[in-house]
Design goal:
The complex is a heterodimer of chains A (194) and B (230). Chain A has nine helices and no strands. Chain A is mainly alpha-helical. In chain A, helix 3 (36-66) runs antiparallel to helix 8, helix 4 packs across helix 5 and helix 8 (131-159) packs across helix 9 (171-185). Chain B has one domain. The chains are: A mainly alpha (194), B mainly alpha (230).
Chain lengths: 194, 230
């Protein structure tokens, strides 16, 4: 059990990083990475929502959809759960931790359309993880996302001052530097786990 | 709004991926063979067109406050239909694209078009918008697939084209493609995630260069016309 959890965590954070090897969650990754602070806030919010969504969707999938043979409604059910969850987290933070709420700002509602969140839930079903494995995969997947976005934000802060062709301004230079980071993360793909 | 203008907007001047910069996750992830690219592009085209028609048909009765929730439910419904159809009739494509078919639900192109276009336009205009935006998306996917496949493994049309017994288009992803140069000479890195980022970056850069150039040309033309008038 423990080795299983360790291998899932290492896989989600380094070897099959959500951004650099599975391309899940690229929109917020490119959109919210211009400063390290916002990147950290976004990363934390994603870790929280991915962990919670994995746990809740696992329960709903097992005790509602599979029990009633409604597996074909998975996509629809999961996206509704995630949307409701994000809304709920938003209201909860607004009431109880207003400082964190204002720090996250607009990024919080945008997590609904982050494909890493729906992706992790669907992958949990596909890999047939149990409750604890799903929860671990959700949280460590979020941590992998956070690692990627914070690393990328610090790279991006430097590219602003460098000299590149005019037509590369904006997204293209970001994509090229993200590609180089992906190249670095490829080094982990040779890692053997147990 | 006329169809010609919409066609040009969808494919070039307002291309969803290269100009609006949305829906990039799947664009980078699945463009490794032409089979995947064409399959994904056509799936998005169908879903986008259906959603556009439905959203614009009911645009007057949707309450403004909960419109996003309604859009998501409509999109998820169509995505589920396409997902089940692919699993039943083209299982090879369903396996190859994996989690990216259900993930069309959160593809910003579809919800973006619903929000930006279908809310304000008639059913007919939305229908053509869906088709042309979908075609624009498919076109980008095809360009990326062809480039990555050619540089990465020296092949063209992997999974889709079979030439062992004459030219044939395979629908089950078994075609070996046309080998242009031996795959040993290919840069395998282009088929890996790195290649996805770099190829899309270069494509957007080329697009920005071309758009800037045409804008400058237009400006120069207008200046010349003004001078002529004076």
């Amino acid at each position: 059990m423990l080795t299983n959890i360790i291998s899932i965590s290492l896989g989600a954070i380094l070897i099959n990083n959500f951004i650099f090897s599975q391309f899940l969650g690229c929109c917020p990754f490119l959109g919210c990475s211009s400063k390290v602070e916002t990147a950290t806030g976004m990363g934390l919010a994603v870790v929280f929502v991915m962990g919670l969504a994995s746990a809740i969707c696992w329960v709903i999938d097992q005790y509602l959809l599979v029990a009633l043979h409604l597996e074909f409604l998975q996509t629809l059910a999961f996206i509704l759960v995630i949307a409701a969850l994000v809304q709920f987290v938003e209201m909860f933070l607004k009431k109880s931790v207003p400082s964190l709420y204002s720090a996250l700002g607009i990024y919080l509602p945008l997590i609904t359309t982050n494909c890493a969140v729906l992706g992790v839930v669907l992958l949990n079903v596909q890999n047939e993880y149990n409750f604890i494995e799903s929860l671990v995969y959700g949280i460590t997947g979020g941590l992998g996302f956070m690692l990627a976005i914070v690393l990328f934000a610090s790279v991006r802060e430097r590219t602003e001052f460098s000299d590149y062709p005019e037509c590369f301004e904006g997204f293209p230079i970001c994509l090229v530097s993200a590609g180089l980071l992906a190249l670095a993360f490829m080094g982990f793909s040779g890692m053997q786990i147990f | 709004m006329n169809i010609k203008k919409q066609f040009k907007e969808g494919l070039i001047t307002n291309n969803p991926v290269l100009v609006q910069l949305i829906g990039m996750c799947a664009t980078m992830a699945i463009t490794t063979t032409l089979f995947n690219g064409v399959g994904m592009g056509l799936s998005v085209l169908i879903i986008l067109t259906c959603c556009n028609v439905v959203v614009s048909a009911i645009r007057k009765i949707i309450p403004n406050e909960i419109r996003l929730a309604i859009f998501v439910v409509i999109i998820a419904g169509f995505v589920t239909i396409v997902d089940l159809l692919l699993q039943a009739y083209i299982p090879a494509l369903s396996d190859a694209l994996g989690v990216f078919i259900p993930l069309i639900v959160v593809n910003c192109i579809i919800i973006g078009r619903a929000e930006a276009f279908c809310q304000k336009n008639t059913v007919g205009a939305s229908f053509f918008d869906g088709i042309f935006q979908g075609l624009g998306y498919t076109l980008v996917l095809i360009v990326m697939c062809v480039f990555r496949e050619l540089v990465g493994s020296g092949r063209f049309g992997g999974g889709l084209i079979d030439i062992t017994n004459g030219f044939r288009i395979t629908m089950d992803g078994t075609g070996a493609g046309i080998q242009i140069f031996p795959s040993d000479f290919g840069a395998t890195i282009m088929t890996l995630p790195f290649g996805g980022f770099i190829t899309l970056g270069l494509l957007i850069a080329i697009m920005q260069y071309a758009l800037k150039k045409s804008a400058k040309k237009k400006e120069a033309q207008e200046m010349a016309e003004k001078e002529g008038e004076e």
